[in-house]
Design goal:
alpha+beta; 6-stranded mixed beta sheet; 10 strands; 317 residues; 37% helix
């Protein structure tokens, strides 16, 4: 009698999904399986980060298309201003006017970003001023932009039981003329942190581009630093072939199997070591602090169901 082989289980992962599995399985379950989002909206850090990403996205896309640098900057700053004010035609995410050249809801208008700095918040004017200073600071940039906001995917691991597809969205891919074609990841921050190569996001990007380097494009938002050179830097994060291989052949499949285990059991155990981080408390902290019979009510009152997660959405990064 012929034995029918068991079909392989396909697992799709990106850096946000993997980081969530590494930190807390309950967070993963609520955020990705149930698609829960806080009704409080984005944090100020995410709001400002999204604003800066939008400006740089429009700038580099125009440069790739062959526009003059002055035109690219003008279009980028206009897009940043539109992100703040919101598009009058599609800000509600429901209607699109033929005169609109962008997708519905792409320019929603900021919610949590103050005009001026307020406490620990960064104002949108300061963020846009920083973008202008960025363009001036890198006016003699030797990088040649090749792709912007591009999603790539590849099967990075496969055995007799599972197949793992890794997906990543690249902020920018450039030819550096020195270390080859690499990913450039924009990182805006309020507090400067030491460079670290312990990032699944960077590791995965290296493997997809067949590179051993990633460039962190640091954009500081510290109002106390008056010199823009103290707030802007580009750091090369490098990996050995052995570290890339370990991540691809051991770490990635380990968590893929853990994901399958939790999915099949239906139990996603919490990890209480990541409830408070440098970025603030976990958005589901109040859920874990509630009694079991009250958690459903907390979720109904303080959370909404968001869209299905995919790598084109950078909100949680």
């Amino acid at each position: 009698m012929d034995i029918i082989p068991t079909p392989k289980k396909n697992v799709i992962m990106d850096a946000t999904v993997l980081s969530s599995l590494m930190s807390c399985n309950r967070y993963y379950d609520l955020r990705f399986n149930h698609r829960m989002l806080s009704t409080r909206g984005k944090s100020n850090s995410l709001e400002v980060g999204t604003l800066i990403h939008k400006v740089l996205e429009v700038y580099y896309k125009h440069m790739i298309k062959g526009f003059e640098r002055k035109t690219a900057i003008g279009q980028a700053m206009a897009a940043g201003q539109l992100y703040v004010t919101g598009c009058p035609y599609c800000a509600d995410g429901m209607t699109t006017d033929p005169s609109c050249k962008h997708e519905a809801g792409e320019y929603p208008g900021v919610v949590n970003t103050a005009e001026a700095n307020e406490g620990f918040k960064v104002g949108w004017k300061f963020a846009l001023d920083t973008c202008e200073q960025y363009f001036e600071f890198y006016k003699n940039d030797a990088f040649i932009p090749l792709a912007c906001e591009q999603v790539k995917g590849e099967v990075l691991y496969e055995d007799d039981e599972i197949r793992v597809l890794w997906k990543a969205k690249f902020d920018l891919i450039v030819d550096t003329n020195q270390i080859g074609i690499v990913s450039v990841d924009h990182k805006s921050f309020k507090q400067k942190r030491d460079k670290s190569s312990l990032s699944s996001q960077f590791t995965g990007q290296c493997l997809l581009l067949k590179s051993r380097n990633v460039i962190k494009n640091n954009i500081g938002l510290q109002t106390s630093y008056k010199n823009i050179a103290d707030r802007l830097s580009r750091e090369v994060v490098s990996y050995s072939s052995d570290r890339l291989m370990e991540w691809q052949e051991e770490i990635l499949p380990y968590y893929a199997y853990k994901y399958i285990q939790f999915s099949e059991s239906g139990y996603w155990p919490p990890n209480f070591t990541h409830c408070d981080t440098m970025f603030g408390p976990c958005i589901f902290k109040q859920v874990c602090e509630s009694n079991r019979n009250m958690r459903e009510e907390v979720l109904r009152n303080d959370y909404i169901v968001g869209p299905v997660w995919d790598p084109t959405n950078k909100e949680d990064e």
